[in-house]
Design goal:
The structure holds 3 protein chains of 3 kinds.
Chain A: H1 7-24, H2 28-53, E1 59-62, E2 73-76, H3 78-101, H4 107-125, H5 129-147, H6 153-184, H7 189-196, H8 203-218, H9 227-234, H10 237-262, H11 268-287, H12 292-313, H13 315-339, H14 348-351, H15 361-374, H16 380-395, H17 397-422, H18 437-455, H19 457-472, H20 474-482
Antiparallel strand pairs in A: 1-2
Helix pairs in contact in A: 1-2, 1-4, 2-3, 2-4, 3-4, 3-10, 3-13, 3-18, 4-5, 4-10, 5-6, 5-10, 6-8, 6-9, 7-20, 8-10, 9-10, 9-12, 10-13, 11-12, 11-17, 12-13, 12-16, 12-17, 13-15, 13-16, 13-18, 13-19, 15-17, 15-18, 16-17, 16-18, 18-19
Chain B: H1 6-38, E1 43-45, E2 48-50, H2 64-69, H3 73-78, H4 83-104
Antiparallel strand pairs in B: 1-2
Chain C: H1 2-23, H2 27-49, H3 69-72, H4 75-80, H5 84-115
The chains are: A mainly alpha, B mainly alpha, C mainly alpha.
């Protein structure tokens, strides 16, 4: 049994338990959510030594002892485990942060949060294409509901837009899965890989196209990004942090799993083109935003572009950057959430005249996140961006120029946002700093991780190299799943 | 592939950080001293007392020249907020991706 | 032959659903289009598992053993059975589609309360 698999039932049970607890003891609600996310995080940490001690670095489990292509398979390799650990970690921090951020500890919020995390961890665990779809739908439905959580004008609008676009995307994924089943007669990822390995069929490009479009919309790659700024503007900010970091990372994981493990296809040109367009468009649009949350959303979109070009050239840097970006986006969103804890205003021009006076840690957290996002040395964003620069420089120098240009644009709008939020003239007098541990603990933890992987970059690079090696050869995955 | 050339950058940036911290401390010290010496309590602009809170920069003044020169505002105008437009984008990119994949695979 | 008809119907449904999704401005009509689109996919899935003159995939009167399940059934009965897996998939997918439709309708009611319209052209508060 895989320890980290415990996360899914625990989170689902918490999602069920929280509304019940909310009837009589509202104070228990944030505690249950925090406990469930903590248990799932510890479970995923405990899986790391189990995975390292296993023979071929892949843990598999067949549900109900059914043999591999017939039953439901749980299979995790080191890449899945990284995504699971990141998701549960960000989820834990968001649950802690929400205790202060969400007033009156609304049970429906925490219930949906646990459901969202269960869906995300499930997507990373499963070794079955249809289960991936089901978990993606669990994630999506809880995302739509969380987007509409405030039931204001803008949250309802963002939610219905996201819902219709997202449902269209998941329908495309379902169509792809239907065609896969028609072609191979199986839905087990390893079995599909084995079946499609040596017989090229004209259906395969169509399947890949449908799955790729659906998942690209979910991970907001330009021109499928339009929902993301709207959604991130309208959601409660801790959930926005999960959407911008863990959700995107998990959907990118699903894309990579489908491309590398199932079909063993490296779409270098397509990914380079999509990555460059995403990177530049995100940065250019972020420069022109007045709303801080839309700015961060476009910034997150532009970072996804880096990951795409890195996957096209060198998997090591892509995995490392995926990890770093997840941490950075969470840090940025949570620090902005800590600043805006008592106000609903998000326009920067208005915010710069307001009297917010945050705790010292909050500007520091935002500045570290912003500089790391732009790729300033000694922070983790730099160590992976540097790898991307030097690997693309060998083969595609033009892409490197675009990447450096995007970094410069990122620095420009990050500094603007920092100046307008924390350094404008109205900041001098205020009603005292907010020092609540439930806000400061997540920020400090994320700052420490940012600095750690900035200074000891070699360690992160070593881990990413091992993950990249496991991704490079899909035969090990197929054998581990089918021959157990 | 490895980050061995990172050591050099690490050292340089440590140096820059150290200089920055020292300079910042000095500057803070100096401004504090100046303020206390001059007894500055008011902010002046155009010969008038102003409330420091009103001295904020509007968002669109940042990088205005850059955006106008390269006509980057058009990209922003493209995001009309219409759901149908976004769905057309999705559909168009589905067609493009399918065409490319059928051609190259 | 029936498979060909149902596949054609599935493709027509998918095309119609996409048309409704893209061309109609009314949010309710968009949701209906989404339903037609998904139902087309369901029909496609069902017709993938269909067999001419197939029998229901129910196994009776055998000693059931996980490891040797496939060997225990006699092969002629196995060949006559329709594929049960697509039906299970469609069942799951229908439930998912139902919950999405329900959520969408709830949000559309909220939108009607707040904007006093369900035309997606007038929902332009979030843009650029």
């Amino acid at each position: 049994m895989i320890p980290s698999f415990l996360a899914i039932p625990v989170l689902l049970f918490a999602a069920f338990l929280i509304p019940l607890a909310g009837i009589h003891k509202k104070k228990l609600v944030p505690l249950i959510a925090a406990a469930a996310t903590l248990i799932s995080f510890i479970a995923s940490l405990m899986t790391i030594p189990t995975l390292l001690n296993s023979t071929n670095k892949i843990l598999t489990h067949q549900m109900g002892n059914w043999q591999a292509p017939y039953g439901i398979t749980i299979a995790i390799d080191s890449f899945s485990l990284m995504i699971i650990t990141l998701t549960t970690f960000i989820g834990l921090l968001a649950a802690i942060f929400s205790k202060k951020y969400i007033k009156h500890s609304k049970p429906e919020y925490y219930s949906l949060l646990c459901l969202l995390l269960a869906g995300l961890t499930g997507m990373a665990h499963t070794g079955d294409l249809f289960n991936l779809f089901v978990f993606l739908e669990i994630t999506s439905i809880s995302s739509y509901a969380l987007t509409a959580f405030y039931t204001e004008k803008k949250s309802c609008e963002a939610s219905i837009k996201y819902l219709i676009m997202g449902a269209f995307a998941t329908s495309l994924i379902l169509l792809g899965i239907a065609l896969t089943y028609g072609l191979t007669g199986t839905l087990n990822m390893a079995d599909i890989a084995r079946a499609t390995n040596n017989n090229p069929s004209p259906t395969i490009p169509v399947i890949i196209g449908l799955l790729l479009t659906g998942l690209a919309l979910k991970s907001a790659i330009v021109p499928l990004h339009a929902w993301k700024p709207d959604v991130l503007e309208a959601t409660p900010i801790p959930v926005g942090a999960i959407f911008a970091s863990a959700s995107t990372a998990t959907c990118l994981y699903a894309i990579i799993r489908i491309l590398y493990t199932i079909f063993d296809i490296h779409l270098t040109t397509l990914m380079l083109a999509a990555g460059t367009i995403t990177m530049l468009t995100g940065a250019i649009l972020a420069m022109q935003q007045d709303n801080i949350l839309r700015l961060l959303a476009y910034s997150a979109i532009s970072q996804v572009g880096y990951i795409m070009i890195a996957f096209a050239t060198d998997t090591t840097s892509a995995v490392f950057h995926l990890f770093n970006i997840t941490i950075i986006e969470a840090l940025l969103f949570l620090s902005v959430g800590a600043l805006l804890i008592n106000t609903k205003e998000t326009g920067m021009t208005k915010l710069s005249t307001m009297n917010l006076n945050p705790h010292k840690i909050i500007p520091a957290a935002f500045l570290i996140g912003a500089l790391s996002n732009a790729g300033i040395p000694l922070l983790n964003g730099f160590s992976s961006k540097w790898l991307i620069y030097i690997t693309t420089l060998e083969t595609y120098p033009l892409i490197t120029i675009a990447a450096v240009l995007t970094s410069a644009l990122t620095l420009a709008y990050s500094i603007k946002a920092y100046h307008m939020l924390f350094r404008s003239a109205g900041r001098r007098e205020g009603e005292g700093p907010v020092t609540n541990p439930s806000i400061l603990i997540p920020l400090i933890t994320l700052i420490i991780i940012c600095l750690y992987f900035g200074i000891f970059a070699e360690q992160g690079e070593l881990i990413s190299q091992q993950i990249a090696e496991s991704l490079a050869n899909n035969n090990i995955y197929i054998q581990a799943v089918l021959n157990k | 592939m490895t980050i061995h050339n990172l050591d050099l950058i690490l050292a340089t940036s440590l140096l820059i950080a150290a200089i920055f911290i020292i300079a910042k401390n000095k500057m803070q010290y100096r401004t504090r001293k100046e303020i206390s010496a001059a007894g500055k309590t008011k902010t002046y602009a155009c010969g008038q007392d102003v409330n420091p809170r009103e001295l904020t920069t509007a968002q669109n003044t940042f990088y205005r020249t850059f955006i106008k020169t390269f006509k980057l505002g058009k990209l922003k105008k493209l995001h009309t907020g219409l759901l149908t437009d976004y769905l057309y984008w999705t559909f168009a990119s589905l067609i493009i991706i399918l065409t490319i994949l059928v051609l190259i695979l | 032959m029936i498979t060909v008809y149902s596949l054609t119907a599935a493709v027509i449904l998918i095309a119609l659903g996409t048309y409704a999704l893209l061309a109609k401005d009314n949010l309710i009509k968009k949701i209906i289009g989404l339903g037609i689109f998904t139902d087309g996919i369901h029909l496609l899935l069902i017709s993938i598992g269909y067999k001419e003159e197939g029998i229901a995939p129910i196994i009776r009167d055998i000693h059931f053993n996980h490891a040797t399940a496939v060997n225990a059934i006699n092969t002629s009965a196995l060949n006559a059975m329709v594929d049960p897996l697509p039906q299970a998939l469609v069942l799951t997918s229908i439930v998912i589609e139902l919950s999405i439709t329900a959520l969408a309708l709830v949000i559309i009611i909220q939108i009607h309360k707040k904007y006093n319209t369900i035309n997606s052209k007038h929902l332009r508060r979030l843009k650029e």
